[in-house]
């Protein structure tokens, strides 16, 4: 009988390893021909091959290696070459670790090892693995130890999982201990302390509470109702949250009580079935914050009372100051009022003197003209007294519908005489000027003050222009102003070609008692009263000026529609203003708000807007840019004025179209020959639709 036939006699089970053993040539194996195996060995092999566990054995002097299918799976690339080889050869890579265990089994002692770490090379590289196994001695028919038997499984995955869990617990424990808030874990319905962190220990006075119930460890908390809250969370399974709750802590019986304020939450802890098994406590000691808020509330209450007291003091002081200013103003008015009255008296006495002379000569045909002049001057003197009473608040304002053109025309002779022969006096009164609602006496006084200021600003002569026009202040304009409402206004401009004002002077010009005139020649109240009159009339006043070039003061008074009329809708930008050619417009304006407004509107209309903040920057754009279809520039610019920028630009770009923006009266500039062909002008403030129309007209030629 061959060795294979002998094997087949007892290896009748299935499986990969049974088939391999039957087919194996055992003639050169340490186990020898299978026909010579003992009955006990055959029984062990059959049992091993049929087992659901990973098993192996070593038999004979060299411990010939046999194993089952489950053991084969943990051998990786050692299988199937290990079959029949000496045990020490198969496990040469870890023999130093397991040989003591093998020797122990061969010595007759069984052993069990759990999670033994072994460095294996089963995947072609060194790798740490863990195994749990037992070694037992095998005996032959005579009872002598002839080998060893091993049952094993790889526990690497379990070891790594347990280590990960341990590391995670350690990490969570560190976080728990280092948390800036206080935390504690309570177990069971009796709320027994299982874990606390340093924050909680500090809160309760570092009392030893672990393993004790809340009732045992913290009787002071029980008395304050905290135990009832815990019972409610444990019973209902619903978390409880509190903010700024007072906790009176008594760390020791009979010891001092420390009031603490805490924000906290009681969160139910659930097991795998969802049942509540404990309560997690987490919160923060907010005592410092609470006390700071209480101090702040007390401070605010005290501060509010101080503000009320101080406000009353300021009201009383303001009334006293107002009366003092009024008395001072009366004294300061003497010089200016004398000047105005002397002019009026000159008209009266001069006219009467001529009348007296003409009567003496018997020439009475033209007396009416001089009598009218004297009467007019006398009325003006009475009006001036009326305005003085209005200033002292003894005379109320009397707003009435006013035709500004007619009022200016009636004042023209007086104003011409006021300016003198060195100054060219011009009026440009718009046709179809709207009616406004204001006190006509105050308007007359405002015009007279503005003309006198313009005259004094031109000691060597010049041009004084009074201009009227209808004006629209739209949403775009008023967005950059303060206390101005959009709508239709009557605009009255008084312009001069005098010395002008610097920015600091402009900023203070409307302040009461501010004047640049020598002592005795001005009160400093003229422009202040004009501004006050405009605001009382629900209007607006603005100054445009440049040192060495002159000043324009614009007075905006609201349009009066009358009882039967209704306000007209404000015009705005339409599709007619939009371009599809993408023309490039250079905008030079030193006022950032105005510049941004214009650039934004141009962008909406389809133009490519390029901006510059002063004259030199605008000139640099003209030098470097390849294409510019239109230059839009303010006249009053720092560095180089708008006209200088335009002239330099035309030298580089002949035929460059230019639109000037100015706060001066347009007719004053036109009268002086300022504009050349291809140039146009728009006066501030302008409506955006007017700007868009002007730009479209210039570009289209």
* Helix run count: 23
| Gyration radius, in Å | 54 Å
Based on Cα principal axes, name the global outline: elongated
Helix content range? 40-55%
Structure in words:
With 701 residues, this protein is α+β, with helices and mostly antiparallel strands. It has four domains: 158 residues, PAS domain (Beta-Lactamase); 107 residues, Beta-Lactamase (2-Layer Sandwich); 161 residues, Histidine kinase-like ATPase, C-terminal domain (Heat Shock Protein 90, 2-Layer Sandwich), CATH 3.30.565.10; 125 residues, Rossmann fold (3-Layer(aba) Sandwich). The protein is 43% helix and 23% strand. The protein contains 23 helices and 22 strands. Strand 20, helix 21 and strand 21 form a beta-alpha-beta unit. Helix 12 packs antiparallel against helix 13, helix 14 runs parallel beside helix 15 and helix 20 packs parallel to helix 21.
Structure, briefly:
This protein is an alpha+beta fold and 701 residues long.
Topology readout:
Layout: H1 3-10, H2 16-23, H3 39-50, E1 54-59, E2 64-67, H4 69-73, H5 87-90, H6 95-106, E3 111-120, E4 127-139, E5 145-154, H7 156-178, E6 182-187, E7 192-196, H8 198-203, H9 214-217, H10 219-223, H11 226-236, E8 240-250, E9 257-270, E10 276-285, H12 287-361, H13 367-391, E11 400-402, H14 404-419, E12 423-428, E13 436-438, H15 440-456, E14 462-473, H16 475-478, E15 487-496, H17 503-508, H18 526-536, E16 540-546, E17 550-558, E18 584-588, H19 592-604, E19 608-612, H20 615-624, E20 630-634, H21 642-652, E21 658-662, H22 666-671, E22 679-683, H23 688-699
Parallel strand pairs: 12-14, 18-19, 18-20, 20-21, 21-22
Antiparallel strand pairs: 1-2, 1-5, 3-4, 4-5, 6-7, 6-10, 8-9, 9-10, 11-13, 14-15, 15-17, 16-17
Helix pairs in contact: 12-13, 14-15, 15-18, 20-21
């Amino acid at each position: 009988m061959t060795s294979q036939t002998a094997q087949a006699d007892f290896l009748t089970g299935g499986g990969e390893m049974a088939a391999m053993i039957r087919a194996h040539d055992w003639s050169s194996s340490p186990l020898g021909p299978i026909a010579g195996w003992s009955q006990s060995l055959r029984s062990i092999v059959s049992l091993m091959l049929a087992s659901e566990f990973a098993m192996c054995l070593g038999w004979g002097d060299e411990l010939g290696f046999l194993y089952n299918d489950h053991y084969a799976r943990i051998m990786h690339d050692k299988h199937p070459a290990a079959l029949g080889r000496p045990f020490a050869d198969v496990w040469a890579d870890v023999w130093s670790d397991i040989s003591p265990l093998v020797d122990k089994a061969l010595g007759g002692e069984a052993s069990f090892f759990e999670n033994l770490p072994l460095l294996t090379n089963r995947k072609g590289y060194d790798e740490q693995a863990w195994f749990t196994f037992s070694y037992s001695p095998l005996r032959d028919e005579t009872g002598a130890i002839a080998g060893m038997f091993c049952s094993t499984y790889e526990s690497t995955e379990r070891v790594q999982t347990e280590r990960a869990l341990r590391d995670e617990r350690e990490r969570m424990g560190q976080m728990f201990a280092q948390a800036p808030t206080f935390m504690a874990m309570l177990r069971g319905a009796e709320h027994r302390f299982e874990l606390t962190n340093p924050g909680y220990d500090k809160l309760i006075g570092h009392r030893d509470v672990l393993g004790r119930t809340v009732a045992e460890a913290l009787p002071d908390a029980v008395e304050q109702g905290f135990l009832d809250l815990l019972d409610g969370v444990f019973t209902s399974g619903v978390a409880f949250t509190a903010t700024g709750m007072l906790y009176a802590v008594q760390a020791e019986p009979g010891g001092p009580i420390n009031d603490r304020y805490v924000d906290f939450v009681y969160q139910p802890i659930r097991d795998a079935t969802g049942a509540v098994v404990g309560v997690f406590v987490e919160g923060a000691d907010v005592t410092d914050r609470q006390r700071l808020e209480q101090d702040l509330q007390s401070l605010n209450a005290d501060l509010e009372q101080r503000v009320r007291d101080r406000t009353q003091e300021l009201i009383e002081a303001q009334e006293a100051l107002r009366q003092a200013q009024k008395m001072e103003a009366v004294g300061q008015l003497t010089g200016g009022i004398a000047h105005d009255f002397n002019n009026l008296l000159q008209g009266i006495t001069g006219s009467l003197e001529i009348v007296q002379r003409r009567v003496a000569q018997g020439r009475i045909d033209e007396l009416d003209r001089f009598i009218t002049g004297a009467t007019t001057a006398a009325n003006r003197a009475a009006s001036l007294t009326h305005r003085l009473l209005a200033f002292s608040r003894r005379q109320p304002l009397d707003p009435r519908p006013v035709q500004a053109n007619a009022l200016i025309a009636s004042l023209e002779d007086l104003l011409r005489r006021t300016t003198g022969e060195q100054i060219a006096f011009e009026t440009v009164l718009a046709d179809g000027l709207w009616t406004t609602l204001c006190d006509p006496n105050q308007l007359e006084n405002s015009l007279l003050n503005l003309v006198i200021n313009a005259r004094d600003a031109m000691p060597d002569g010049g041009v004084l222009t009074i201009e009227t026009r209808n004006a629209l202040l739209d949403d775009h304009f008023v967005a950059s102003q303060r206390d101005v409402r959009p709508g239709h206004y009557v605009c009255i401009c008084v312009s001069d070609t005098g010395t002008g004002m610097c920015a600091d002077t402009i900023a203070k010009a409307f302040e009461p008692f501010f004047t640049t005139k020598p002592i005795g020649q001005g009160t400093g109240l003229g422009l202040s009263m004009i501004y006050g009159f405009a605001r009382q009339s629900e209007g607006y006043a603005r100054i445009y000026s440049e040192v060495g070039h002159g000043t324009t003061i614009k007075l905006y008074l609201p349009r009066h529609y009358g009882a039967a009329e209704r306000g007209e809708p404000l015009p705005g930008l339409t599709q007619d203003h939009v371009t599809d050619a993408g023309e490039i417009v250079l905008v030079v304006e030193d006022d950032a708000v105005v510049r941004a407004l214009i650039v934004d509107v141009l962008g909406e209309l389809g133009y490519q807007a390029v901006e510059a903040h002063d004259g030199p920057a605008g000139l640099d754009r003209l030098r470097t840019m390849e294409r510019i279809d239109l230059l839009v520039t303010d006249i009053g610019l720092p560095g180089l004025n708008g006209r200088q920028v335009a002239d330099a630009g035309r030298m580089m770009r002949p035929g460059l179209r230019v639109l000037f923006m100015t706060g001066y009266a347009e007719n004053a500039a036109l009268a002086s020959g300022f504009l050349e062909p291809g140039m146009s002008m728009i006066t501030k403030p302008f409506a955006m639709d007017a700007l868009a129309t002007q730009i479209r007209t210039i570009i289209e030629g």
